[in-house]
Structure formats: C-alpha cells, structure tokens
Design goal:
Blueprint: E1 3-9, H1 16-30, E2 37-42, H2 48-56, E3 62-65, E4 82-84, H3 90-100, E5 103-107, H4 118-128, E6 132-136, E7 142-145, E8 157-160, H5 174-184
Parallel strand pairs: 1-2, 1-5, 2-3, 3-4, 5-6
Antiparallel strand pairs: 6-7, 7-8
C-alpha cells in the first residue's frame, strides 16, 4: 500500500506537539512495506513547510515542491528525491497540492478555522475535494476528517493523537492504522 500525502502548515512553524505527531506519522508509515508514503507534496513556505520537508525528505519518499510566486516567503528547499515544479500564485498552488494528494496533513496555528489563512484555505479545498484530512492542532491533537463515504461508512471526526488513532473504515489506510495501534500498545 502506498499513498500520496500533501502538507500545509503555518509560516510561524510547527509547535513541539505538532512536530512530535508529524514525526510519529512519518515513523509509523515508514515501517510499512518499506515506505507507505510514496510522495510528499508541500508549498515550500518558511515555517511548517520547511520543517515538514526536513522530516520527510530522507531519500526514501519522493518530495514534490509546489512553490508560490511570493518568493520572500519561500524556504527554497531542495528535495533529495523528487523535484520542484513551476511557481504559481498561492491559492492556485494550494489547489495543486490538494489535487495531487490522497491525504492532506494540515498543521494550523489556530485551533479553529479562520478566513484569510493559506493553511485553512488549503484545508477547505481538500474538504471540498473529498480528501482525507489529518488535522494536527497546535496541542498535538490529531483529527481525521472524511468528507466522503469510504465503503459507505465514513463521514466523521476522529479526535485522537496519532498514536491512538483507531481504524473505523477500510479505506486503503488499514495497514497504517494497524501500525499506529501496534506502536501505541507498546
């Protein structure tokens, strides 16, 4: 099983709990069939994008960078395995990340959705596109959001830390969820 992950996060950077949960998600996925995550897409902004890049860019995952046209906010990361695509305006770039991914990991600086935020705008694009969203709040709480019916059973919030996420549907992420459960029981 492999899937494509998109990422969006605040330019202020990840909180320590967000960083911990993001590393945990990466470590857990890395133990499944060599690497369960096939590609990792991010927007190359300073802050959370750059930090997530450093976690996921170990050469085993293809990292695809979607830079925006606002060069002053860029981190100018270079992937070990992957490539940088053409620059696009921020909202268009965010839509490209959503279009490319199976799952969007979203690390906002706020606990509630706001307007005029690139992170939350990307979240809304993913929700409208019926993507699975793993929202990692500033306190490290992970909320899995589905806006479609996977096997006729899902349209729910699942509020748990990544180490305690329970499988509630067979939507292609069963192995990852089993691995999360195994690690949390150790």
């Amino acid at each position: 099983m492999s899937f494509i992950v998109g990422f969006t996060g605040t330019r202020q950077g990840l909180t320590d709990p967000q960083r911990h949960e993001l590393k945990l998600l990466y470590q857990i996925s890395d133990g499944i069939n060599q690497t369960a995550i096939e590609e990792f897409h991010h927007g190359d902004c300073e802050g959370a994008d750059a930090q997530a890049h450093d976690i996921f860019d170990d050469g085993s995952i293809r990292v695809i960078i979607h830079p925006c046209t606002i060069r002053g906010k860029r981190a100018f990361k270079k992937p070990t395995s992957g490539y940088v695509i053409l620059e696009f305006p921020p909202l268009e770039r965010n839509q490209h990340i959503v279009d490319a991914c199976d799952v969007l990991i979203c690390c906002p600086k706020e606990n509630t959705m706001i307007n005029r935020s690139g992170t939350w705008s990307t979240y809304r694009c993913a929700f409208k596109a019926s993507k699975e969203i793993w929202l990692i709040l500033p306190d490290g709480k992970v909320i899995r959001r589905f806006n479609r019916k996977h096997d006729g059973s899902c349209d729910y919030w699942d509020d748990q830390s990544a180490s305690l996420m329970m499988n509630k549907c067979s939507c292609g992420y069963l192995e990852l969820n089993k691995k999360i459960q195994e690690r949390s029981s150790k």
